[in-house]
């Protein structure tokens, strides 16, 4: 019986000015590095299409029952690797690669306005910034109301908040794909540790109450 935890990390296909999407390049580098022998790492490239995201994400969560899903996207404005704390349900008016956007302009009908990740991104950011990765990390609470935010919110909703989103800068702006792959490895491992620590705290609290 396989007792390894499964972690899914996704990047996006090219869109707009991003003829090579740095998110997928970084995820491919992460795949080469892996997350250690105790983790089954699965990587997926996601189309920049609302309908494709809405169809793909439920199947990923159901089929693989992952411990954690980390979505990675590119931001032309980013100068650091940015950890997104939350996803938003409303405000999707930008057309995707198929020139489509949802009529409802939202991810999940009647879902909450905002969903926070179970992971404390400020804590994760502080730890990876102090670990000499050679890459700067920051935290954001606005993933941009496009496919990144749409994907993040949908996955947070489906996965009971066991999800994270990371924005990376375009390739060559400051870092290579290899740099970003190493940064992703560090941050995903720290996220997993954060989740484990939280579980331990919850168990201790439960025992204290009994």
From TrEMBL:
SUPFAM superfamilies the record matches: Pyrrolidone carboxyl peptidase (pyroglutamate aminopeptidase)
InterPro entries hit by this protein: Peptidase_C15, Peptidase_C15-like, Peptidase_C15-like_sf
CDD domains named in the record: Peptidase_C15
GO biological process: proteolysis
Coiled-coil ranges from the UniProt annotation: none
GO molecular function: pyroglutamyl-peptidase activity
Gene Ontology CC: one annotated term: cytosol
Keywords on record: Cytoplasm, Hydrolase, Protease, Thiol protease
Annotated signal sequence range: none
PANTHER family tied to this protein: PROTEASE FAMILY C15 PYROGLUTAMYL-PEPTIDASE I-RELATED, PYROGLUTAMYL-PEPTIDASE I
Protein family per UniProt: Belongs to the peptidase C15 family.
Protein name: Pyroglutamyl-peptidase 1
Gene designation: pgpep1
């Amino acid at each position: 019986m396989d007792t390894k935890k499964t972690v899914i990390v996704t990047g996006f296909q090219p869109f707009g000015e991003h003829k090579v999407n740095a998110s997928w390049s970084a995820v491919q580098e992460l795949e080469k590095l892996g997350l250690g022998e105790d983790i089954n790492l699965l990587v997926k490239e996601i189309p920049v299409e609302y309908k494709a995201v809405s169809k793909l994400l439920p199947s990923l969560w159901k089929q693989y029952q992952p411990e954690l899903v980390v979505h990675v996207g590119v931001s032309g404005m980013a100068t650091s690797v940015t950890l997104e704390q939350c996803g938003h349900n409303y405000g999707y008016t930008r057309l995707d690669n198929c020139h489509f956007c949802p009529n409802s302009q939202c991810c999940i009908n009647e879902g909450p306005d905002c969903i926070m990740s179970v992971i404390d991104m400020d804590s994760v950011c502080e730890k990876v910034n102090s670990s000499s990765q050679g890459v700067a990390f920051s935290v954001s609470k606005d993933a941009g109301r496009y496919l990144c935010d749409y994907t993040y919110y949908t996955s947070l909703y489906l996965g009971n908040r066991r999800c994270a989103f990371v924005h990376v800068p375009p390739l060559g702006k400051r870092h290579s794909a290899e740099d970003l792959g190493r940064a992703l490895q560090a941050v995903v491992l720290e996220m997993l540790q954060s989740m484990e620590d939280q579980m331990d705290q919850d168990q201790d609290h439960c025992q204290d109450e009994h």
